[in-house]
Write a structure and sequence with these properties.
single chain, 525 residues, mainly alpha, 77% helix, globular
Amino acid sequence: MLGLEMVVLLGVGLLLSGLLARRFPVAPALLLVLFGVLAGFVPALRAAQLPPEVVLLVFLPALLYWESLTTSLREIRSNLRAVILASTGLVVATAGAVAVTAHALGLPWGPAWVLGAAVAPTDATAVGVLARALPRRTVTVLRAESLVNDGTALVIYGLAVGVTVGTDHLTVLHVSWLLVLSYGGGALAGGLVGLLSWQLRSRLDDPILENIAVLVTPFGAFLLAESVHASGVLAVVVCGLLMSQLAPRVTGAAARQQTTAFWSLSTTVLSSALFVLVGLEAQNAVRNLTSASAGRAVAYVFAVTGVVIGVRVAWLHTTPYVVRALDRRPAQRLRRIGARQRNVNAVAGFRGAVSLAAALAVPQHLDDGTPFPGRDLIVVVTSGVIVLTLLQALLLPGVVGFARLPEDGSVAEERHLAEVATTDAAYESLEQLAAELGSDERVVERVRREMDKRRKLLAADGAVDDPIVQHHDQYTELRLALIARKRVTLLELRDEQHIDDIVLRQVQAVLDVEEVRLTRSAPVE
């Protein structure tokens, strides 16, 4: 019954956190973590565990795939150098600094590096949830960094665990080969699965079958990469970015609506479940700590968290100046951001489920059968670092205000450009397409009038005092009211048993499409 209890618990936690977040200026993710911590005090739930393989094999591929599909590849290319530096150099620097700090506090070198590798990468889910309101460039850099840096961290983690357990040896050639295999193999696996998925989906005309193919794709990429000991994380990211470019050419409208609805809901549930489980595991880790006192564990948590945050702040306030000294091209100067704005990136370095999964995956014993030194302390410290870095979200609004970020209207401007260009292209091809289809002149004239109205509305660009916009708003309001009246009549017909529930759902689906079209028809949001 524990599984059913956890499902209900997660659902209740998600609902309560969402409702509280609407009333108080606190991110739902933080409330979910707190909910998980409090749930850990319930004796019946203490047996609940978060197997690391579930995070790595079930949660992670789905969440990373959706993050990759919805990330701007153009912005990643524009900020590629910053992304690469942050996802490699910053990860290594953070892991090394944490290892030195943990060793100075008494942890042996091997476990210290394991801890450093576990807390080094930022979390794509946490970044996507907590930093989504930031300007597009900032969000893209943060998301891209968190999508890629897991590969670097997991290589360091694997080496540290292998050396500590006694199954691995640390040499320059071995480390180089692991990095090449992780990144190169992961990218190739993701590209191959993405191309296969694209070819398969281009031959499907059933939305259900196509969405089954979409669902299998990230897990196939992850599995292929892991089977050759490459980075499954990078494979999913590459596959998602590739499909974001190829899928729009082969996906139909019905399949795309299903895909968006399914993935939006499922990733929200998965990410929310992870935050609750992080809180639950943090509470369990503290309760099961035996190798160190509570005071020593708290000292580790604050020291390591301080190092994690400090290294990130130092990195973001030093490497840009090195880049500026080496690259003085005009294009580079145009992309520079001030120190105040870099503080936003520094505060948004949230840790999450990947770090916790890495800590929980540490072996129980060494190769000789002795217990892995400080394993329970590693889990406690990692849990504490995750919670404290997530709490930085409380500081994010103030830091954003201090940074004086310029208003980002680029998305609205580009959307307006796209709508104007596509409407003009359709209008200019109206006569040719009508002739090819043999459309009646009255039909052509009706479509022309509708398109003329749409072009005038776009030309008004959302000005509320424009008569055309006012006319459109009144028209939309009246149409929505009429749809509401249709729904009432439809339900009355069903309740009076004049029509069946099957008919109700069919007609209701048509009304839903019409309502969605009307509510999304404003030229600029």
